[in-house]
Every structure is written in C-alpha cells, then in structure tokens.
Amino acid sequence: MRLSANWMSIADDRILEFLHEEGPRSPSKIHEDGRVRFSRQHINMRCKKLEEYDLVQNLGNGVYSITEQGREYLEGDIDANEL
Predict the structure, then answer these.
(1) 34 — alpha (psi -120 to 50), left (phi > 0) or beta?
(2) What is the pLDDT of residues 1-31, one digit of tens each?
(3) Which of 33, 63, 68, 83 has its CA 20 to 30 A from that of 51?
(4) Which domains does the chain have, with CATH numbers?
C-alpha cells in the first residue's frame, strides 16, 4: 500500500504511474495521452511539486522522469510524509 503525504493529490499518483510505464515525458505529452485526466497546467504544477520531493526529475525542456525514490513510493517502500 502506498503511503502518500498531506501535500500530495490524486494526480500525483497518476503522473508517477504514467512516467513509470511510459518513460520521460513533458506535461503536454502526459495530458495529450489522455490517461492522466487533468489539465496540462495542473499536470505541470504537480510535476514541479513532485520534483521538490525528488519523486521526479526535470531532464530539461520541461521533460520529467520518475526517480528511484518515485519508483520506491509506487512500490510502497517509502512513506511520502517522510520526504
């Protein structure tokens, strides 16, 4: 079971799952795919927040990749409240 933090939203799990399955993408590409059903602006805002907690990494040009810590969160191995 995943242990989310108070600062997290449901969009965060969807974004992390998407990046884990599909690899690095920009918020625009995540939105265009249609599986993460939030606006591009909201996805962009959440990616920036996830980066603050080292769950994703900005690779440049607005492209984000899931980090090892992000994968550990998805597996339920870390408590996001402790980040």
Answers:
(1) left
(2) 899 999 999 999 999 999 999 999 999 999 9
(3) 33
(4) 10-77 (1.10.10.10)
